[in-house]
């Protein structure tokens, strides 16, 4: 059961606060026994918490007080047939769909008993009355008023591969492909499916190289948005040392975490970084042994470990060579009102780590668990009160990282209610979350969907760098990190290509516009498939496109639609006549 599947629960849920109904729950029985509530909590955490919490809107609406504002029978009807509620013209369903632009299919995995138990738990969570420390300021309702300009760039795509179904047959998502990368020596292309498979792409056909479901007994694949086999990275000398690195999720309390949540909080799951020693790097399929580097608790099932990567342009003998970067989301701590877990050099969440997998190097000191090294050149390595692994912090959901040919480290940071940002990461820099989103101020104890312009008396804002590129939610919803084009198509040279995950819009900036203290202008571009114009949202006929980008050893750009398992490649780019 994936995230879109519980979204319906959002959908059924948010206008929640819009229309108060006295004793509305009385038209449907809500179970109030401890067993039903406890089971409902477990089900909610497993299936719903990725998209929803009780205090703030997220991917779906906040759910606090929903049973006090919506009839139980309406909630159940909507869960069973959300599209039917929308098609019937139901006012609440229509408003929710217009706002969130998503609709989930009818539940097939949860029966009436489970839904009743979830509702029993929801009934214990009441609406939060929000206040704001910025009540004396006017909310900025349109943070970026300029509309993204449609350029004359047209990219022709070719469907390269259809990946196997790894989910339940006939039930979305069919697969969860999210990352395409390559082994640096051979140039061999690999594609990751978060359902546990790492594929080699051989003659444009996916062949399983590594099946993590057979290697990790506790691999957590559900609820399926942020959990699973999340990422991989080949050591730059893999062909000699056989070292491969992975990030995956496991249930909470599987083992003691190296980075644990406070005793007063309950972890929802854990992420684990593993080093695998491959027996024969030239072998066609994986054989080897794993060594755990560290594990980290997550306070919710959202925004976990996102990207792990080595700097591909670092050369042997340089400082950055062989150092592993790990982007760690805020675990939903912002939305769940745990700002004390974030925005600190003493906290791991919402950050970018840089570690040396080899704890014996003289340029690093051993980590606390002794499993890896902390580079002495890290910005906080010499601060005894700080986490030495930190390279930068203050991110909400640092989804992807990449390096330009000039060596600029770029990070796509998925925002909450307003701003999607592409950040130029500098060592030791603070990027503001959950006190800022992009260039705008927010109140971590108030309504996170509201942003405010900084003023002269703000102490944090002057120290937060502006994104090198940004767009607001008038345009799209969640930035899909991209790459500087390094291939052979002349029309794409000098461009950084990226997009939006749920909506599927395609954007670029000119790399010449990446400058200190400046925000580059964002342009939209169009694509064709076999010469025919199309948009991803129209092609896959899904409410959520789930767009992701990849780049091969030749610098060519690929696009993946995660849930239907399709891989496309840009094969041509031209300028259309306007």
Folded structure, characterized:
With 578 residues, the protein is of the alpha+beta class. Among the domains are: 3-122, Cytochrome Bc1 Complex, Chain D, domain 2 (Orthogonal Bundle); 195-394, 6 Propeller (Neuraminidase). 12% of the residues lie in helices and 30% in strands. The strands form 7 sheets. Strands 1, 22, 23, 24, 25, 26, 27, 28 and 29 form a 9-stranded mixed β-sheet that branches. Strands 2-3-4-5 form a 4-stranded antiparallel β-sheet, with no helix packed on it. A 4-stranded antiparallel β-sheet has the order 6-7-8-9. It is globular and about 65 Å long. The two termini are 45 Å apart.
Strand share of the residues?
A: 25-35%
Q: What separation lies between the terminal Cα atoms?
A: 45 Å
Q: What kind of assembly state do the chains in view correspond to?
A: single chain
Mean pLDDT: 90
Content-based structural category: alpha+beta
Largest sheet: 9 strands, mixed
Please name the CATH architecture of the domain at 195-394: 6 Propeller
Q: What labels describe this entry?
A:
578 residues, Cytochrome Bc1 Complex, Chain D, domain 2, Neuraminidase, four-stranded antiparallel beta sheet, 30% strand
Secondary-structure topology with pairs:
Elements: H1 3-11, H2 34-47, H3 66-69, H4 72-80, H5 82-87, H6 91-100, H7 112-122, E1 149-162, E2 177-182, E3 189-193, E4 197-202, E5 205-211, E6 229-234, H8 238-241, E7 243-251, E8 269-278, E9 288-298, E10 305-310, E11 324-328, E12 351-355, E13 364-366, E14 373-375, E15 390-393, E16 397-403, E17 409-414, E18 419-424, E19 436-437, E20 440-441, E21 469-472, E22 479-484, E23 495-500, E24 506-510, E25 523-529, E26 532-534, H9 536-539, E27 547-551, E28 557-561, E29 566-575
Parallel strand pairs: 1-25
Antiparallel strand pairs: 1-29, 2-3, 3-4, 4-5, 6-7, 7-8, 8-9, 10-11, 11-12, 12-15, 13-14, 16-17, 17-18, 18-21, 19-20, 22-23, 23-24, 24-25, 25-26, 27-28, 28-29
